[in-house]
Amino acid sequence: MKILNVVVTTFVLLFTSLAGLFPQESTDNMQLLDLKLQLLDSKLELLDSKIKIWETKPQELDIRLSEIDDRLQQLDFNPEELNRQFLLIDSLLQEYERITDENYLSIPEYQERQARSDSIQIPPRKYYIALNPVRVVEGTLEVFVERVINKRNTIEISGMATYASEQGLSGTYLKNQELSYYNDAISSYDSYRGDNISGFGLTFSWKNYLMPAINPRYAALKGLYAAPYTMFRKVWIAGIDQVYSEEEDLWKTVEITQKLNILAGGVILGWQFPIAHVISVDVFLGGVIRLCHYDGESGATKYKRIDNIDYSGVLPRAGIKIGILK
Questions:
Q1: Can you give the pLDDT at residue 191?
Q2: Sequential pLDDT tens for the chain (326 residues)
Q3: Nearest Cα to 177, choosing from 223, 138, 133?
Q4: Cβ contacts of residue 293 below 8 Å, gap of 6+?
Q5: CA-CA distance, 265 to 87, in Å (whole number)?
Q6: Segment holding 13, helix H or strand E
Q7: Measuring CA to CA, which residue among 211, 234, 235 is closest to residue 222?
Q8: How would DSSP label each residue in 89-151?
Q9: What is residue 16's predicted lDDT score, i.e. its pLDDT?
Q10: pTM exceeds 0.90 for this model
Q11: Three-class HEC string of 22-87
C-alpha cells in the first residue's frame, strides 16, 4: 500500500508541474483530475483497511474454535447420573398421581361416581341372532341363532322359509332357473317355466373360535372361527308347460309341481365383528357338497347349472350375516 501511495503522489506532482506550464488551458481539467485522484486515494485506503480486517478474521476464528474445544473438554457427562435423574422424576410423578387419587377418593361426589361406574358391567354375551340378507334375493328368509357353549365353542342353528315368485324381489332369481321335469308322454325330460318356489330348511354348524388360544382378549362370538356345516331343504317348485295332445290335436297348458330335497355339507371359515357389544357382523367363506333329489326320481340330479336350485356337486359357500348379541 505504501508503494501505491508513492505512485499516486508522483502522478499528482507530475500533473501539477504540467499544469504550471499551461495554466491558461488546463486549469479546470487539472482541478477535476485532482478531485478524482483524491477520491482514488480514499478508496485505496479503504481497500487497505478491509484487507487488514480480512487478515485478522481467520486468527479470531481459530481463537474462538480453540475456546469452544476447551469448553467441550471441560464438560462432564455421566449417563448413569442422567438416568437416575429420570427415574427420580418418574417416581415423583407416580407419587403425585397417588396423592391426587387419594384426595379425590375422599370427596363424596367422586366416590359416588366411581361406585356407579364400577357397577356398570357388560355381561358376557351368550346368544347371537342374525339374518342372512343374501338369501332375501332368493326369496328365502333365514334366521340364525348361535349359542355359546364355552369360551371357544358355539352351536349355530338356522331356519329357512322360502317363497319366491316372479312378481317379488326374487323374480330375477326365479327367471334365471333352468328347470325340467320328466314327461311321460314323450318319455324324456322337458323344460318348463317356474312360477313359484316355496319350502323350508334347516342348517346346523358347530363353530370353533380360534383367536382365544392366541389372545386372551378374544372369546366366543368374536374373531376368526372354523365350522363344519350341514343343511337340509325341502322345496316345492311350481310352473307351467305347453303339452301337445294328439287325441285332441291341440296344445294344452299343464301345471307342474315338483318336490325337491336338498342335502349339503361342508366346512366354512368366518370372522365375526362385534360392534359396541350389541351388533355383530359375520362374514364367512367355504365349500360344500350339495346333493339334490326330486321325489319320484332315482339318484341325484345331473348336468345342472351351478346357480340352479337343483344343482348337485361341489360349490362355494359365501355370505354375510348381520344380527344382535344377547
A1: 87
A2: 545 555 556 555 555 555 554 454 456 667 777 777 777 777 777 777 777 766 666 667 777 777 777 765 665 556 666 667 767 777 777 777 777 666 555 556 555 665 565 555 556 789 999 999 999 999 999 999 999 999 899 999 999 999 999 887 888 899 899 998 887 767 788 888 888 999 999 999 999 999 888 888 888 899 999 999 999 999 999 998 887 777 777 887 888 899 999 999 999 999 999 998 889 999 999 999 999 999 988 889 998 999 999 999 999 999 999 999 98
A3: 138
A4: 260, 261, 263, 299, 300, 301
A5: 62
A6: helix 2-21
A7: 211
A8: HHHHHHHHHHHHHHHHHTSHHHHHHHHHHHH---PPP-EEEEE-HHHHHTTEEEEEEEEE-SS
A9: 58
A10: no
A11: CCCCCHHHHHHHHHHHHHHHHHHHHHHHHHHHHHHHHHHHHHHHHHHHHHHHHCCCCHHHHHHHHH
Residue type, 275: I
d(CA 139, CA 155): 26
Name the phi and psi angles at 239, rounded to 5: -165, -170
Looking at residue 222, what DSSP letter applies?
S
Q: Which amino acid makes up residue 194?
A: G
| CA dist., res. 5 & res. 231, Å (int) | 116
Contact 137, 170 (CB under 8 A): yes
The secondary structure of 133-199 as a DSSP string is HHHHHTTEEEEEEEEE-SSSEEEEEEEEEEEEETTSTTHHHHHT--EEEEETTTTEEEEEEEEEEEE
Four-residue CA torsion sign, 47, 53, 59, 61: negative
Report d(CA 255, CA 246) in Å as an integer.
18
What letters, b where the CB count within 10 A reaches 16 and e where it falls short, cover 173-202? bbeebebbbebeeeeeebebebbbbbbebe
Torsion over CA of 19, 22, 25 and 26, rounded to 10 degrees?
A: -10
Q: Which residue has the cell 356337486?
A: 313
